[in-house]
Amino acid sequence: MAIHPDYGKQVQSLLTKHNAEAQKNSNVHVYTRPTAINASAKMDPDTVVTIVNPVEHPRDYVVWSICSFFHANPFCLGLLALIFSFKARDMKVTGDLQRAREYSKWALGFNVAALIILF
Question: Which of 46, 54, 66, 115 sits between 20 and 30 A of 11, alpha carbons compared?
Answer without folding.
Answer: 54
